[in-house]
Amino acid sequence: MSTRSQQLAERLIRNYNDVELEHQIRPPLYDTLCARLGVGTVAGKLGASIDNVPPGQRSCPYHFHYAQEEMFVVLEGSGTLRVADEMLPLRAGDVIFIPPGPEYPHQLINTSDAPLKYLSISTRETPEVCEYPDSGKYMASAKAPDGTAFEGLQRAAGNVDYWDGEP
Predict the structure, then answer these.
(1) Topology of the domain covering 7-126
(2) Which of 14, 23, 96, 140 yields a CA-CA distance of 20 to 30 A from 167?
């Protein structure tokens, strides 16, 4: 492969079987081997991740986004999509579409006795607010064009008055 071909491949292609996975665990419910696939690529508006979730576990808390749209592709295994307080069965080959907004809080749960492997694809809208209905938290994040970022995680109960602390 030529030098130019190699550079293009490095900026444009990721193989989810070859990426280094990070073990994220928070007993007793959360456990996943995962990787963000878009890091180091030229992707600006799309994000992609791979998750491998052991039986009985989930990769992240029940949540919804105000700006980002998500899609999940079940590659291997089976499980359950917890969405809008319903439990929907999932199996390999299923493609799940989650629009932004409070109508579709969601979470993928491995309710099987084998690993659940799925690909997450999302828009990377900024600014973004993500709400966690089970815990009453929200996360606000924004990224400036120069790459500087802001992220805050808070409980809604911790809100202050608009004029709090102002002269």
Answers:
(1) Jelly Rolls (2.60.120)
(2) 140
